[in-house]
Amino acid sequence: MTTPRTSPLSGSPTLDEVARVAGVSRATASRAINGGQRVSARAQEAVDEAVRTLGYVPNPAARSLVTRRTDSIAVLVPEPDDRVFSDPFFAGTLRGVNRVLSERDIQLVLLLARPGADTARTLRYLTNRHVDGAIVTSHHREDRLAEHLAEIGLPCVFGGRPWTGGERVAYVDVDNAAGEREATELLIGSGRSRIGTIAGPHDMTAAADRLAGWRQAMSAAGLADDAVEHGDFTEASGETAARALLDRHPDLDALVVASDLMAAGALRVLTERGRSVPDDVAVVGFDDLGVAERTTPQLTTVRQPVVEMAERATRLLLERVDAMEGSHPMRVIIPPTLVQRAST
């Protein structure tokens, strides 16, 4: 291989120069730089050496035409902006996704789409293949995103079980029902018998599964399961729901709450009403993303490993993108862990 003569006025090296230095055709050089398909090991090595010698940087637009890849992955969150930037669940999700994408030098694109309002615009963006795939989290029943994404054929993985279309897409989820069932059984085992719950939104599968787990444990113990209020996984909604529950059931001696943020709101209401935690009312949350350790008292909670789940979802998505064809949808269910602290 000859060493090229360079000049400070010669500008950036071109693909033609790479091909000349490597002793291959321009087409072979292009294939070698953009994925190595149908390129011999000897030619690949020669092109790699020429790229290093010349300091050649591929043109992203040209590379995209060859590979049909954008080297970007979307994280789609159908939630209001203020919720996304205030809930530690989303911070953990983005941290896990970005950790895996960084290993592959792939860009994360965050798409915020308020439930219903921005769905059409977001689907147009995804249909036009501005990204290679999408991870969808915090989805709602009316979104029907699993069905839409399956129809356009975009590789995708859902964080959490979709309401509909789940047989056509891959997803990673925690066993929500088992986690809430175990939390309720902990309270029953400690002698609590008047146990209420603050469930999540009616239109989210995580909320429905956690509520089902609470009902299963209550039914198995022969306890009434009518002390239910719903929130939207925010602290304010936890306060509102706790007030409503205590107004209807002032004799409650325990609360199972479907998120730590809602549980933090419930703890404030219990303090306002002079109810001691855990002596008068024991409280269990769900998530363990930092909030549970900052409450007074610290919360017993069900830990869902959000960062790990996001990493698993991202690796699964990249496998589907690399396959360049449809593959059988995978479901990964991760067991939760009950973490006991002072609130019980």
Q: How would you characterize this protein structure?
A:
- This protein has 344 residues and is of the alpha/beta class.
- It folds into three domains: 53 residues, 434 Repressor (Amino-terminal Domain) (Orthogonal Bundle), CATH 1.10.260.40; 133 residues, Rossmann fold (3-Layer(aba) Sandwich); 128 residues, Rossmann fold (3-Layer(aba) Sandwich), CATH 3.40.50.
- It is built from 13 helices and twelve strands.
- The strands form two sheets. It has a six-stranded parallel sheet, with helices on both faces. A six-stranded mixed sheet has the order 7-6-8-9-10-12, with helices on both faces.
- The N terminus is likely disordered.
- InterPro entries: HTH_LacI, LacI/GalR-like_sensor, Lambda_DNA-bd_dom_sf, Peripla_BP_I.
- Keywords: DNA-binding, Transcription, Transcription regulation.
- This is DNA-binding LacI/PurR family transcriptional regulator.
- It holds the Pfam family LacI.
- GO terms for molecular function: DNA-binding transcription factor activity; transcription cis-regulatory region binding.
Descriptors:
single chain; 344 residues; alpha/beta; Rossmann fold; six-stranded parallel β-sheet; 13 helices; elongated; disordered N terminus; Lambda_DNA-bd_dom_sf
Biggest sheet statistics: 6 strands, parallel
- The CATH topology of the largest domain turns out to be Rossmann fold
The CATH homologous superfamily of the largest domain = Response regulator
Number of strands: 12
Spatial gap, N to C terminus: 73 Å
CATH class category name of the largest domain: Alpha Beta
Q: Number of DSSP helices?
A: 13
Strand content: 15-25%
The oligomeric status of these chains comes to single chain
Radius of gyration: 26 Å
- SSE succession: HHHHEHHEHEHEEHEHEHEHEEHEE
Mean pLDDT across residues? 89
Question: Order of strands in the sheet with the most strands?
Answer: 2-1-3-4-5-11
The chain-level structural class is: alpha/beta
- The percentage helix is 40-55%
Low-confidence stretches: 1-10
- From the spread of the alpha carbons, the general shape counts as elongated
CATH second-level architecture of the largest domain: 3-Layer(aba) Sandwich
The number of distinct structural domains comes to 3
